[in-house]
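Example 3.
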Amino acid sequence: MAISGKAIKFGDNINTDVIIPGKYLESIDPEELGRHALEGLDPTFPQRAREGVILIGGKNFGCGSSREQAPMALKSAGVRCVIAESFARIFYRNSINIGLPALECSEASEKVQEGDLLSVDPKNGTIEVSSRGLTLKAFPLPQFILNLLEVGGLIPHVRGLIGKQ
Amino acid sequence: MNIFEKILARASERKEVTPGEIVEANIDMAMIHDLTGPLTVDSFRKIGSGRVWDPKRIVVIFDHLVPASTIRAATLQKGLREFIKEQGIQSLYDIGQGGVCHQVFHEKGHVRPGELIVGADSHTCTYGALGAFATGIGSTEMAAVFTTGKMWFKVPKALKVQATGAFKRNTTSKDLILKIIGDTGEGGAIYKGIEFTGSAFTNMSIDGRLTVCNMVVEAGAKAGIVPPDNRTITYVKTRTKRSLKPIRSDRDATYEDTLEYDVSRLTPQVACPPSVDNVKPASELSNVKIDQVFIGSCTNGRMEDLRLAASILRNREIHSDVRMIVSPASQEIYRQCLKEGLFRIFMEAGAIVTNATCGPCLGGHMGLLAPKEVCISTSNRNFIGRMGSPESEVYLANPATAAASGITGNITDPNELRRR
């Protein structure tokens, strides 16, 4: 499964309150959440992400609250994959669980530039920056997480476990 | 093995586990609230198993937007009540019956030392104060737990905090955890467990321990635990009749690192916006003018906290440019405050007392901030827009510092407040 898209960059410690503020949490509608994704940091983000993008973060991406609305909002806004130096653990699990690939890469925040065209292979852990002929190494996703992503997240996975599919 | 490894080994029915290993563990208790619950139910319905794995192990607490602040919130809460009835879940703490989830959950006896607890809220780590391995998860993850009763865990590496000494006047366990987060950084303990040991912790009240464990997630930690001792057992026994099997670290347990603190050298600390690790002594921030004070939340809305705030506010008045909101963390605490006359002190000082709710802390309802407004809060997060406008600012402090700042109108070290 290869994922491609233009890079949009943010810094360290991007928390879930700026990804989706508390006042929107009474919604569980992905489309509505997507319209407010990251508005705390960049109100134009939902427009910029619409074409399908790859989000690059620094350290501790997604820190803060357990709100699953955070990765839901990003995914719905058009984010196809999140790459960061490190993730806050709840955000990481939430992302995978809703079928949004999240990859750890120590060099992406330094080497990827805003607008670079990226092609990501989560299985091998490679990130190709085709516009500049670079290949970066990310931490490859373990097989059981790849399996989760391949079936579309935790809901279809558990459905499979209990014999619903 | 250390306490994190021992609890995960027990819960995954293994003799031994090692850091980095992935285990599938049985969940002892699971908690949802009115904000993360509806999405959990939505995912649970999509999974389609029909029944939860064990209604006795599920606790539901209404606390974030209570009483309902909008028609949408009311509608989501109505749906959650229907789910609870349909599934035969007994432990529902609806509006008027409980309060803030991370107070109510242990107050009502749902935490036992040695248990593995997950909650659909990041501050579920609070219950480590009672010797449990407790951590926050998302809503869909919770729907999977509701279906199977199991969840995968990566066994965390562990840090040890060794704290000695006695806290000085108006300096609390909040100042210690702020200091620790300032030292480790926001993501400094990412994926890790933190065990809190030393005489400062053995002498610390349960309320104080709850404050410390509540905030470990702000350093990125998966869980924080104070080893269970007599104080823990006494507290838990007054709350539940269920049998206890406490777990403690082995003598030869290993840790990635040990951090040492002498709390007698601590002064009141403040985490400045926009991150929890931006920590400075309160005494250095006296030029910061404030508009609002919030005393409450799952971090500092407990009896000890409200008594401390009242001791500062007694026979004093809040500055005319400042408004102060006090939210006791539970109905039980609310009743105790009434009994001790604390509300009279708050109200005579000019504060407003609300029901037990998370509302102001997450910018959910009651006390949202306008652009350019500044709040000093006893809660746990000061992120951009946390309590309202993205242009507002939040400073985090202990209840004495928050109360003292309300009196002067600027951030104030409570020990520098003029004597009466």
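Helices of chain A lie at 16-19, 30-34, 45-49, 69-77, 89-97, 108-111, 143-151, 154-161. Chain A touches chain B at residues 12-13, 15, 17-18, 21-23, 25-28, 39-41, 59-60, 63-69, 86, 88-90, 93-94, 97-98, 142, 144, 153-155, 157-159, 161-162, 164 (CB under 8 Å).
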